Amino acid sequence: MAAAEPPPPRRVRPRPAGNAESAKGAEGRERPSARKASAKRRAGVPDAAAAMRSAAGQLAQLLGRPPDSVSSLKPTDEGWEAQVEVVELDRIPDTTSVMASYKVALDPQGALVSYERTRRYSRGMIDRPT
């Protein structure tokens, strides 16, 4: 008895680039939030990574201190909003350094519109549940 030949490989059509299925609802129509996001991208709005770099870089120029981290970033109707952590006073040991948290607002093109220091704390301090 001869061995059975394996079936020929199936051809699969490639899917379009991007995640078009998640942007469309069950009826095949594009969801409003997906339309709004794609319209913003076409208008030249930076992506999240570019907005984060922009917020940190522009704040560093204004304060004259490099940012330690970006603790939050969210899109808004006016552009982006970020929380940037900055070392305001270096101390030894590091856990006693004075940190500041700045709220930074960016316009749709990623330019800094405003910033505000919202909090000062020592690096070693942890948030307590309320």
Estimate percent helicity. 10-25%
**Beta fraction:** 25-35%
Number of helices: 3
Total strands: the figure is 4
Strand arrangement across the biggest beta sheet: 1-2-3-4
Structural class: alpha+beta
Q: Mind explaining what this structure looks like?
A:
The chain is an alpha+beta fold. Helices cover 24% and strands 32% of the residues. The protein has three helices and four strands, in the order αααββββ. It has a four-stranded antiparallel sheet with strand order 1-2-3-4. The radius of gyration is 24 Å and the shape is elongated. The N and C termini lie far apart (76 Å). Mean pLDDT is 78; it is low at 18-26 and 37-42.
Which secondary structure elements does this structure contain, and how are they paired or packed?
Elements: H1 20-23, H2 32-42, H3 48-63, E1 67-76, E2 79-89, E3 98-106, E4 112-122
Antiparallel strand pairs: 1-2, 2-3, 3-4
